[in-house]
Each structure stands twice: as structure tokens, then as C-alpha cells.
Amino acid sequence: MSLTAQTAANGVGMAFAIAGAVLASAMAGVGSAIGINYPGSAAAAVLREDPEKFGNLFLLVVLPGTQGFYGLIIALLALPKIANVSSVMMGVQILIACLPIAVTGLVSAIYQGKVCLAGVHLVSKRADQAMKGVIYAAMVETYAVLGLLTSFLLLTSIK
After folding, report:
1. 3-class SS at 36?
2. What pLDDT digit, counting tens, does each position of 96-138 carry?
3. Which residues, 6 or more positions from 113, have their beta carbon under 8 angstroms from its beta carbon?
4. Of 53, 94, 130, 156, whose Cβ has the fewest other Cβ atoms within 10 Å?
5. Torsion of CA 89, 82, 152, 116, to 10 degrees
6. CA-based diameter of the chain, in Å?
């Protein structure tokens, strides 16, 4: 392969790798923004009536935001590898490694937000039951953690 062809291949590979990092961060972040919207809006309405419930509602509102951090972690882990992309195949590998947290982060954050919304409704009626709502939301979180671990293991196996 000529030097020009190899340089072009490296550039295409880097573009795939950058796309992977962008997707991991952006899709998980968008999911978190949408997910936080559900319990955040409802919690504000509950707090309007009873400001003392802030502590019971806080975890339910912030839980869907964790997926955005997971996506950012994977994007930050991918960045050093982008500089060392030596082929199109390596760039595609990085892109594929970033997809598990991108997809699970997007979907789980939105559904976790819906579960947290139900938890906010529970707290509005019975504040002493707040942890039950958090536990149900944590069950959805499990799948985001699995996506994070999958992306982490795939990224660290790329040489």
C-alpha cells in the first residue's frame, strides 16, 4: 500500500473511531436529558406543595443522569486510542466498542426516567416509601452498567 493510500486509510479509521466516541457520549447524554425530564418536572410539582420532600425526591430525579456519565467515561477511554488508529479496521473496532453504552445509555435512561416518575408519584402520596422507588429505578440502571462494562472490556481489548 502506498504512503498516500495508508494515510487515507488511517484518516478513515480515525473518523470511525471519533464517531464511536461521539455516539457514546451524545446518545447516553441525550437519554439522560430525556430521562431526567420526567421525574424532574413531576418533582418540581410535588415540591411546590411540600418542599420538605426534596431529600426523598433527589435520588429519583438524578438517577437517569448516570448514563450520561457512563457515555462520557467510554468516550474519554476511546480518545487516547483514536490517536493511535493505524487502519480502517481499528477505527471500526473502536466504533463498535462504543456502541453498547451508546445504545443502552440512551434507552435505559429514558425508561429509568419513567420508573423514577412513578417513584415521584409514590413519594407524593407516601414519602416513607421513597427507597422502593429508588430500588425499582436501580433495576433499570443495571442494563446501563452492563453496557458500560461491555464497552469498557471491548475498548481495552483493542491493541
Report:
1. helix
2. 999 999 999 999 999 999 999 999 999 999 999 999 999 999 9
3. 34, 35, 36, 37, 38, 39, 64
4. 156
5. -110
6. 71
Give dist(CA 61, CA 116) in Å, integer. Answer: 7
Give the Cα separation of 87 and 12 in Å (integer).
Answer: 8
Residue type, 90: M
Tell me which amino acid residue 39 is: P
Of all residues in the chain, the percent with pLDDT exceeding 70 is: 99
- Asked whether the whole model's pTM tops 0.85, one would answer yes
| CA 140 remoteness from chain centre | 12
Contacts of 26 (CB under 8 A, 6+ apart): 71, 102
Q: Three-state DSSP class for 126? A: coil
**Alpha-carbon distances of 34 from 21, 53, 67, 92, rounded to whole Å:** 20, 23, 11, 28
Distance CA 135, CA 13 (A): 42
**Grid cell listed for 46:** 410535588
Amino acid at 101: I
CA 36, CA 29: separation in Å to the nearest integer?
11
Specify the residue for cell string 429519583: 60
